[in-house]
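Mods, move this if it's the wrong board.
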Amino acid sequence: MAIDFSLSPEQQALQAGARQFAAGVLSQVKATIALHPAHEDRFFATRPFYAQMAQAGFVHALFPKAYGGSGMSIVDFALAAEELCVADINVPSTLLSTGLGMEPIIGYGSEEQKRRWIGEILEAPGDRLAALAFTEVTGGSNYDCPDPSAGVQTFARLEGDEWVINGQKHYTTNGCGWDGKGAHLISVVCRTDPGKPPAESLAVIVVPGSTPGVEVVGYLDTVGHRAVVSPRIHFNNVRVPAGNILGKPGDGIAICQYAFTWTAALIGAACTGVMRAAFDIAFDFAKNDKRSGNVPVIEHQNVGYMLADIKMRIEAARYLTWKACHQLDVTDRRSDELAVMTKVYSSELCVQAVYDAMRLVGVDSYTVLSPLSGLMQDALCFPLYDGGNMGVRRRQLHRKFRAPGYDPMASAEGR
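Not the wrong board. Structure tokens:
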């Protein structure tokens, strides 16, 4: 039989190892960050956990073997990510964001660029973060708007053998690095000519965070993902070598799509992990709490139905994630439809699943008496970040459906 969801012995060991790491290490994150009122301080407090994650090999898993990584498939990375996110969303998100910052280099860098920059991260994987500077102050949804007066307003002009970059970015996850001064590498989405549309001018230029002119001007305090840092970064006449551009001007659209397709599939694993955490809390409550009645509430039919609905959402999200990740692995990212669908579908399932867990537990779930309130804050982020679902439906899926020759069965048939 060609279709088989059985995990190999190696995958079972990976899953078990990630689950053990989550229970033994990441379970301590919540108590650690609770001591810090400022968002950036909560992030900085997770550094020891990230270092342990790097020591366990999770940073190396981001990169191909040819460049010093362990060459983990996207499917296998999803297996591990789900387990990690059951215990904590923050540190795995920092890992995923380093991956997002490096994806443009992995996909579009020259051999020299890959060896250099991947090598730099892997020299000190627990200390060096990468970031993607994508979102403008005015938003990122229309980064590819054909009108040159709109869209990305961060510009790079070529002066001799240097790019000079000016602009402002928000939500540059990891962009401050562990010292608050800048990530080790920042892949900056910019335009090389204000008079040309993105198809001719959108580019990604790699900027070391220590470059003069990179300025962290503040932090956005999010209601969920409480220790995932979202700095506001200004690029003030930042000068980098002309060779730091990935590909050529105009390649930026394809590069951004490449990077966000990878995270789209893996967000499904994160959502599955959060749903699992919510289910475990609701299930334990249902088995052990009588709510002043004479039997545990799991004995009531409606509670059983609600638990069944939550569990079905978990299973649906998991297998769609596996399918999407497998599709990316076997098509070398050429088939991205399922990845985008996974991001949209799983993120909205996650919000509904956590909400239903809260409904089952009752009003206590809306207080700090229950971890469900925090999980809801985390879940609400998924439909909004890495491309809000409203925009993703329009920009990726609707556009794909309108394209000449679109084949509705291609993704289902593995093409």
